[in-house]
Amino acid sequence: MIAWLKANPDKASVGIAGVGATGHLAGIALQKETGTQFQFVPYRGNGPAMQDLVAGHIDAMIEPASNFKALVGAGRRTDGRHISRRGHTLRCRPGESQDPYRGIHP
């Protein structure tokens, strides 16, 4: 994902729960750390952002994995683009960096 973001600056859209929210600040840190650029799409909370993520209107969200527990429980697909690291209370497919079988999963 980082390689794609570097090759395609400002093409990805990342939903955030609002300007200054945790996901927004983490996204700014991610951009600085990786030298990438993407567009932030502010929402009025996580709920509307998650709806647009599932519907494919935005490319990603940066949020704690526990916020996605209901989606995983409902059988919604989550992957390293949505959950960057595995939560202790959330049993789901590990993030791309932790997946020894990356590239094999559908």
Quaternary structure: single chain
Would you list the SSEs in sequence order as H and E? HEHEHEH
Please give the alpha-carbon distance between the first and last residues: 16 Å
CATH classification, class level? Alpha Beta
The low-confidence parts are 80-94
State the helical fraction: 25-40%
Shape: globular
Named CATH architecture = 3-Layer(aba) Sandwich
Structural class: alpha/beta
CATH superfamily: Periplasmic binding protein-like II
Number of helices: 4
Strand order of the largest sheet: 2-1-3
CATH T-level fold name: D-Maltodextrin-Binding Protein, domain 2
Instruction: Tell me the radius of gyration.
Output: 13 Å
Estimate the strand proportion: 5-15%
Mean pLDDT: 75
Number of domains: 1
Biggest β-sheet description: 3 strands, parallel
Number of DSSP strand runs: 3
Characterization of this structure:
Helices cover 32% and strands 9% of the residues. The protein has a three-stranded parallel beta sheet, sandwiched between helices. The protein is α/β, with parallel strands linked by helices and 106 residues long. It has a single domain, classed as D-Maltodextrin-Binding Protein, domain 2, CATH 3.40.190.10. It has four helices and three strands. Helix 2 links the parallel strand 1 (13-16) and strand 2. The model is unreliable at 80-94 (pLDDT under 50).
Question: Topology, pairings included?
Answer:
Layout: H1 2-7, E1 13-16, H2 22-34, E2 39-42, H3 46-55, E3 60-61, H4 69-73
Parallel strand pairs: 1-2, 1-3
